[in-house]
From TrEMBL:
GO terms for biological process: methylation. CDD domains: AdoMet_MTases. This is Class I SAM-dependent methyltransferase. Keywords: Methyltransferase, Transferase. Pfam families: DUF938. One of its GO terms (molecular function) is methyltransferase activity.
Length: 196
């Protein structure tokens, strides 16, 4: 049976709406930490001009393949195993956009940094990095919902949790990327878009 992430069902349409102009000129998107693969399936259906590559850790691949097989879309590539902490994935400049949803706060600072640096490295000049999820601003929560969510995350693992926008911007600035768009999303989430 296909794994289902309920949150994906709630936020896939708002995500597609904001990405429709952001990815209008993109051709090939690498998604990092795709999870069940639901976002990729939905977005590949919405944006038939894009080649969409799903990826995640090995454990997620069998479930994601069920979504990929069922969708049977010619612009949705077979899911690949990709651990952002491994170096080899970031050297191929095959993509003009990278998308990731709900990953940065689910991992440690070191893993989040590897994701950001790797994404910057894999993108072509002018490439876009789209990051969806909750963020803190200047070390503060942007709402009570995010505060509770962060406490819940830290109870699972004290090393993970919501990251500061300023930290993300700083890491990506060091990689030659700048914040070009910031869109408010439902439930105190943001879509941040960085460009090379
Ligand atoms: C909360 S889930 C989000 C899944 C999906 N993007 C979504 O929005 O439903 C976080 C994802 O990050 C992935 N992840 C964690 N560490 C990773 C790593 N080192 N490399 C790649 N993905 C990783 C997990 O496997 C998981 O699928």
């Amino acid at each position: 049976m296909k794994p289902v992430a309920e949150a994906c069902l709630r936020n896939q349409q708002p995500i597609a709406e904001v990405l429709s102009d952001i990815l209008a000129n993109a051709k090939a998107v690498l998604e990092l930490g795709s999870g069940t693969g639901q976002h990729g399936v939905y977005l590949a259906k919405c944006f038939r001009h894009l080649k969409w590559q799903l990826s995640d850790l090995a454990d997620c691949i069998p479930g994601m393949k069920l979504w990929w097989q069922e969708a049977s879309l010619d612009n949705l590539c077979e899911p690949i195993e990709l651990d952002v902490t491994c170096d080899d994935w970031a050297t191929r400049r095959d993509y003009d956009a990278v998308f990731t949803a709900n990953t940065i706060h689910f991992v440690t600072l070191a893993v989040a940094e590897a994701l950001l640096r790797g994404a910057a490295k894999t993108l072509q000049k002018g490439g876009l990095l789209c990051i969806y999820g909750p963020f803190n601003e200047n070390g503060c929560y942007t709402g009570d919902g995010n505060r509770q969510f962060d406490q819940w995350l830290k109870a699972i693992d004290p090393e993970i949790g919501i990251k500061d926008i300023e930290w993300v911007e700083d890491v990506l600035r060091q990689c030659g990327m700048v914040l070009v768009s910031r869109r408010q999303m439902p439930a105190n989430n943001l879509m941040l878009v960085f460009q090379h």
